[in-house]
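Subject: Sanity check before I submit

Could someone independently write out the structure tokens for this chain? I want to compare against mine line by line before I put it in a report. The sequence has 107 residues.
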Amino acid sequence: RLARPAIPTRHGSKVWTTPRKKSLGISGRMLSASQQRKMGLSQGGVIITRVRKSISPFKRGDVILSIQGRPLRSLGQAAQIVKRSPVHRVTVVVMRGGVRQRLDVGL
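---
Independent answer below. Compare away.
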């Protein structure tokens, strides 16, 4: 990994920063088959059980259906899509209150 460059301060010294790990800032688990049926979904998804970022578009109970247009098949896949994203924003489709919503999420 490449470290972020040093940032000069007003006093001439430099502050070194470390690379930030990309994350959606959530915890979750895969939907069970019965949950999928109840929600009328033909695909799987990740139900959010905890939101860790103070400023987040996610809410507890949201179901992530896709990230960057890719349907989710596992929690690991979600983490890999985020980790490999060349940008620091991703498009996430969630089911919230029975309605699909598209969110633009900062990492």
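---
OP: Matches mine. For the report I'm noting this point. The longest helix spans residues 75-84.
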